[in-house]
Input
Amino acid sequence: MPAIIEIIQADITTLAVDAIVNAANNTLLGGGGVDGAIHRVAGPELVQECAGLRGCETGDAKITGGYLLPARYVIHTVGPVWHGGDTGEPELLASAYRRCFQVAHLRGLKSIAFPAVSAGVYGYPMREAATIALQAAQEAAAQFPELERIIFVQFSEGAQQVYRETAAGLGLMCGS
Ligand code: AR6
Output
């Protein structure tokens, strides 16, 4: 059975899933937004493991333990900074999501939760970002049979609404 795609409003650091995705920066050494929240809850061992990864290219993803988080793993990805959309942003964001799914697949993970990568400090418009995220989920659900749950987590009700409308536009059946 293909994975169920869920859209929920929550703090991603509270989710007991196989992996939560971190919207990180190229250093992987922490920052603000969801990155800061994940590091705060995971504790200092997370940044120690991240330091050994020697950063991450934009559009790539790397996995670590979850430490004090309820999630078993953190998949750190780096989305593009929005510069208007003509400098490869859609391809880089799609690549970030694809790489997260590949990394999860290599560990045989069954549940993965994503924040809206790039759609905060990095300025990616939420609707465009949601389209790319949901299309990547659709592809991964078809490609990786072990995936049971793909969860899109938004902090705000407004962002959740954008995801729901975007999913409906793509003809996706989503749970909550
Ligand atoms: N749970 C779920 N979503 C959250 C949470 C949370 N706890 N906290 C924030 N969001 P951002 P980016 C939402 O800025 O745009 C960091 O400094 C937030 O409302 O965290 O990829 C990194 O180190 C927004 O919708 O990530 C980088 O330097 C979404 O998560 C830079 O920010 C992403 O916002 C990355 O920027």
